[in-house]
Task: structure prediction
Amino acid sequence: MELTSLNDMRRYFESGITQPYAFRKQQLQSLQRAIESHEEDIYKALAADLKKSREEAYASENGFTLEELKVTLRNLKEWMAPEGVPTNLFNLPSRSYIRKEPLGVVLIIAPWNYPFQLLLTPLIGAIAAGNCAVVKPSEFAPATAEVVGRIIKQVFPPEYVLFVEGDGAAVIPDMMKEFRFDHVFYTGSTHVGRIIYQLAADKLVPVTLELGGKSPAVIENDANLAVSARRITLAKFMNAGQTCVAPDYVLVPENLLKPFAEEVTKCIHKFYGEDVANSSEYGRIINQKQFDRISSYLHSGTLLSGGKTQRDDLYIEPTLLSDVSLDAPVMSDEIFGPVLPLIPYSTREQAKSVIARNPNPLAFYVFTESKNTAREWLDAVPAGGACVNNANLHLSNMDLPFGGVGNSGIGSYHGKQSFAVFSHYKSVMRTPTWFDPAMKYPPFKGKLWLLKKLIG
Result:
């Protein structure tokens, strides 16, 4: 991509055209109409890339994005408004407030597992905050990239929102070395996230990194086993397990491991039928590279259920494993597929020690009927987000910021936080000239008592 395109974006932003409320609102409404008018194309693209059903696609992709748009349009004027804050005694009668200002030209890099909403949801925040944006879809979901590109080119001029295709490993470093973005928003693997972070650091560019990690689920002895199994099955096997917040493994009391596995197996067949390979509800692995990686985990323990594969169809059956070594790759790598190890534990300390082997997960799930037990677990496990008696669905509440911590990422977004991450909150103090006492100026000798009253 030519540097001139990025410089055109800088000039467009500096013209101030993107900043008025009316402009931002109009762009968001135009995007909303385009998404709605391309609904069938979106379904076809997601089916081609990941074999997502229409219902799953709507819930996790275009419907999810439309909800973010609606929340943003409903609240944008309030979010943009200057925010008054108190002024301390020393600075009276000044007025203090916070202005929300756009950052400039931002870069948004999307992954392949939710290729529609993980590109457009952050873009909504960037537009709402008044920025110009370069958006880079994943080349591994080409059908969805084509539809998203069509939508963006239909709605936005390239000097405002620029759609960039190509091999991310080449395109992204080239852009970041040639041009100083004002923010980089990346969703994807921890390995690539480190590379993005290093490229950004060279120009002191702030980043949001939405990474992954091994998100654990803990079943307590008092958990409702049937409900826990249903919710974990849904969270784990939607999108064929290719979800960054999917439960990566489940810690189960030793005496409950067998009945829990039986409940999950029942749920798999209830959700996807006895012949899962022919279910319209169950997706496929994105490509053969990921298929081979995930398939290698199937030999990491005892098969409790599942385990069937079809490489030519990129199909891996929902699989439960037991007797898994904690040193096996399946317990150190992020699985990102439909393989679920069940790890027995006898004490909470033992369960916590397993989690501590992969600290700072993107999500943490605990299933218990006790509020005290839930609180103890939430205190014990630092994580990007958490659910009690649920999994994954905290993402669907736009009032909850979503993001990682430590190894699982930097920063958060969704709803108001999407606006905030692409904004600079400028502190402003305005002081009148009618009151200007001499005591505030040198010489200060003999005024210590006054300074203590005004400042202390």
